[in-house]
Design a protein that fits this description.
Strand order of the largest sheet: 1-2
Number of domains: 3
Distance between the termini: 34 Å
Shape: elongated
Mean pLDDT: 85
Radius of gyration: 29 Å
Strand content: under 5%
Low-confidence stretches: 347-367, 369-374, 387-397
Largest sheet: 2 strands, antiparallel
């Protein structure tokens, strides 16, 4: 299967329907040759005296398209690879596409487009639609598109359209090249919407409806990859600052950094947990828990726990809420000690699970190397031991 056409990247995000060439030009999806040229001439004449034109009747751009946007759309129209992607993501209506699809298939397609477009526009502030109604459109879009993408009929439709367009630039492509890119394109608006932290909790609920469909469950984490990585980087930077202050004995400053930087950064990461693997979520929770606990321990050891008692309690309560199961008992014991005016018994486990696994791997590889040396010779023993060190390095990184 060849890589999906570049048009998928061009349309990705909230501009998915706004930049669609049929939305911009107002042409039906079955427009060809002379009809396209005549329509372009009419629009050129119109935009010579007017600043914008409205585009398709269902275009999501309320203030119209400028001359340069219309010109670009017609240029992209000339590339059948781009055109086909835009066909798949715009209304088919009653266009005579010559395919074997039944009317119900075209109707379901248009309903999915309408629901998806309406949901995106509502999220971007176009139209006064309550959040509850938006959720309904998102759900309808997920169900409608999932049904289409799982249908063999859509693949047949694409194959027919590739034949009908009869352009050699399509010869290197198969229908699956277009099908493969559609799920990620349909999910791509979520990445931009997630930039607004206030909508992330609701967005996570919306996305849960999309992940109910296997066709969307696999690519969804990739959509949020950059957003998640930015959040993780901010959290790591805040943890690094707190750690440096803790190590230099500036315990009160370290505690302030935890309150003012680390916990807000972790709250942001938590809002994205729906799009993060369970193991990574647990590891980040463990890291923050250890930081909170160890700073609290440092303050107590420095004899500062009485003047900073309230902040300590708040920090340990946060640690107790965040702590994964492996740390919970230790953290709750330390929280109890802080609340009663005592000092925590000790730091939470500071050796990362990855390091523990690395130790096990190294021990096993050494043992395996000894056995191999006795049974298969020195070359095998050396190879196994070196392989163990390589794996340990991977775990450490």
């Amino acid at each position: 299967m060849k890589e999906s056409p570049a048009r998928f990247a061009d349309l990705a995000g909230l501009r998915l329907y706004r930049r669609n060439i049929f939305a911009v030009t107002g042409l039906p999806v079955d427009a060809r040759g002379p009809a396209v040229r005549r329509h372009r001439q009419r629009l050129d004449a119109r935009l010579a005296v007017e600043k914008t034109w409205a585009g398709d009747a269902h275009s999501p751009v309320w203030d119209g398209y400028r001359k340069d946007e219309v010109r670009l759309a017609f240029e992209e129209f000339q590339d059948p690879r781009r055109r086909l992607v835009d066909e798949l993501t715009w209304y088919w209506r009653d266009a005579d596409l010559g395919c074997a699809c039944g009317p119900a298939t075209h109707q379901r397609h248009d309903e999915a487009v309408r629901a998806h477009l309406t949901a995106i526009e509502a999220e971007t502030g176009h139209g006064d639609m309550p959040a509850a109604r938006r959720a309904g459109y998102w759900s309808d879009a997920a169900d409608g598109w999932a049904e289409l993408l799982d249908s063999p009929g859509l693949r047949s439709h694409i194959a027919h359209r590739m034949t009908a367009l009869a352009d050699p630039r399509l010869d290197d492509h198969a229908p699956d090249d277009f099908l493969a890119g559609l799920p990620g394109l349909l999910l791509s608006p979520f990445a931009e919407l997630a930039a607004d932290r206030s909508v992330r909790p609701r967005l996570a609920q919306v996305c849960a409806g999309w992940t109910d469909h296997p066709v969307f469950a696999a690519p969804l984490p990739d959509v949020f990859e950059d957003t998640v990585e930015d959040s993780v980087d901010r959290l790591k930077d805040a943890l690094r600052t707190a750690g440096e202050r803790h190590e230099s004995g500036r315990h009160a400053d370290a505690l302030a950094t935890l309150e003012e930087q680390v916990l807000p950064a972790y709250a942001e990461f938590e809002s994205l947990e729906r799009f993060v693997s369970e193991s990574r979520s647990e590891e980040m929770a463990h890291t923050v828990t250890v930081a909170l606990n160890n700073v609290a321990l440092g303050i107590c050891e420095a004899g500062l726990h009485k003047p900073l008692r309230q902040q300590l309690i708040q920090a340990m309560e946060a640690a107790s809420r965040i702590a994964p199961a492996r740390d919970q008992a230790q953290i709750d014991e330390n929280l109890k000690a802080v609340r009663t005016g005592g000092a925590p018994a000790g730091a939470a486990q500071q050796l990362k699970p990855s390091e523990c696994v690395g130790c096990v791997v190294l021990l096993l590889s050494i043992a395996g190397g000894v056995v191999a040396g006795l049974t298969a010779g020195a070359a095998w023993a050396t190879g196994i031991i070196i392989g163990g060190f390589v794996l340990v390095g991977m775990f450490s990184s």
